[in-house]
Amino acid sequence: MELTLFDRRITIDFREFLQRFGLLLVFFLLCAVLAVLSDRFLTISNLVNVLR
Prior knowledge:
By secondary structure, the chain is of the alpha+beta class. Helices cover 62% and strands 15% of the residues.
């Protein structure tokens, strides 16, 4: 995929994108799945415990 930004072409390689942000994507996917499956995952008390 190519994006044009101020007459400069930037190529985005899917493999490079996954190498850079793959772990972060997996983390957000895991949080989303846990939030859907558990009724206590996104509670205030759990978020306070995580931030501690």
